[in-house]
What does this fold into?
Amino acid sequence: MSREPVGTFCLVLHSHLPWLLRHGAWPVGEDWLYQAWAHSYLPVVETLDRLAARGHRDLLTLGVTPVLAAQLDHPAALRAMHTWLADWQLRAHEAHVTDPALATREHRAAAHALEVFERDWRHGGSPVLRRLADSRTVELLGGPATHPFAPLLPGRVRRFLLDAGLRDGALRLGRRPAGIWAPECGYAPGLEQDYAAAGVKRFLVDGPALRGDTAAAHPVDGTDVVAFGRDLEVTYRVWSPRAGYPGAAEYRDFHTYDHTTGLKPARVTGRRVATADKKPYDPDRAAAAVARDAADFVDTVRTRLADLRAPRGRPGLVVSAFDTELFGHWWHEGPAWLEAVLTALPEAGVRVTTLRGAVEAGHVEEPVVLPASSWGSGKDWRVWDGLAVRELVADNEDVARRLLAAVDGAGESAGRDATLDALATQAALALSSDWAFMVTKDSAAHYARRRAAEHRDRVRELTDLLPAGRHAEAAARAATFAAQDDVFGRLDARALRRQPSRQAAPTYSGVGSLA
It folds into this structure.
C-alpha cells in the first residue's frame, strides 16, 4: 500500500421511492417499497455496520429522500413491512415441494431479515440513519420533499419544497442536511442561489455537466455551493444503459420468477437466453463473480485515479453514484460487492471518504458555470419535459399555479390552515419526478399516469372549492386526502406566501423556467 493515497474515491447512494403507502400493492405500489426495504435497505445498512465494526469510517455518502424517510418511519408501513417479511417466509415454505434448495436459501434469508428488522428497525428508519451519521459511518444527504424535477418548477414552489425537505431531514435526523441529492441531478443556472439561501453546501450533477472534468468539486457561479460530478467512466463499469456487472451470467436473474411463490430461482445465464432455459441460481458461482467484479472495479478506480494524477501533478477525485435500490433489489449480490469494494479500495492505496470528506481533503478547485442538465437520457431534461410527458408537464404547471393562487388568496392568518396544508401535500405529490420518468421509460406507465392524475385532480378540487367560498366542503375533502397521504405532518403551506423583500430568483431562458 502506498504511503500517500493515489487519490480519493467517493461512493454516493441515492435512496428514493415515491409515496406508495395506501396506493396499491402489486405489481406497483406498497410491494415496491417492501421489496426495496427487504432486499436493499436492510442489507446495505448491515454491510455498513460490519465495516464500521472493523474500524472503517466515512464509507460513503447516503442520500435518503424525505418522502422515502417518511415511509420508513410510518407506523402503517412498519406494520405492513413486518407482515411482508413473514409472508416471504411462508412463500419459502411453499417452494419446498418443487425446489428444496431455493426454499432453504429463501427461508434463511427471510428469517434473517425478520430478525434484523425487529432488532434494528422496529422504531423506524430515522434511528438507523442517525446512528450511521453520528458514528461518521456515512454522510447523509437530504433533498426536496417529494423529489420534484426542480428546473421545471416556479421559484416559490421549488424553494418551498426544498426547505420543507431540509426541515423534515432536521426533524428526523437531528441535523439539517448540508448536502443534497438534487432530484434526477436536475440543474438549471440559478439553482445554486436557492441552495446557498437554504444552507446547502454541496450537491451532485452528472459528469457531462462538468464537461467530463469530474476530478474535483467546483464552487458554482459566484457561490460557495460546490458541485460534484459523477465519473461516468467508472460508474458505467457497474451499471450503464447497455452493460455492467449485474448482467453477468452468474448473478441471480431479477426478471425470472417462480410464479407460484414469487421467488427468483434462476441465474442470468446469458443475455439472450429464454426464461425457460435459464439455469438454476448457484450461490457459489455468484460469490466468485462478486470477487471477480470487485477486483475489477478496484483496479478500474485505481487506474482512473493514476491517470488523473499524472497530468495534474496531484491526487484527483472519483465520484461514483447509483440508486441504492440497485444493491440487493435489482442486483441481488450488490451488497456483497459493496462490502468487497469498500474493504479492498483502501488496501489498494485509495482514500475512501464522503463528499464532506473530499471537501475537507482539498478536492475543491476553480469555480464553474454549469449548463442545464440531468442524469437522464441525453443528460438533458427530455425524460421530464419531452413529448411523451407533454400532458404531465402542462398538468404540473397548472398544479403549481393553482397552489400559489390558493395560498395568495387565503391572506394572512395567525395559525396553520389544514386545508391549505393538505392542498400543498397533494401538489407536492403530483409534482414528483417519478411519474414523468415512469411514463417516458414506459415502466408501469399506467400506474404513474393514474397517480399523477389522482393528485392533480385533488388539487383542482380543492382550488375550485376555496374560491367559491365552500370552505367547509373543502376542509372535509382535505381531511380525507390527508388521512390517506399523511406524508409530512409539519408541511406548512404558509411558507409559500410571497416574500416581497426577497431578491427575485435568476431565470433560465431555455425549456422550462426557474422564475
Summary: The radius of gyration is 23 Å. The CA atoms of residues 35 and 329 lie 7 Å apart. Confidence is low (pLDDT under 50) at residues 501-515. Strands lie at 7-15, 60-64, 138-141, 179-180, 202-205, 218-219, 226-229, 316-323, 350-353.
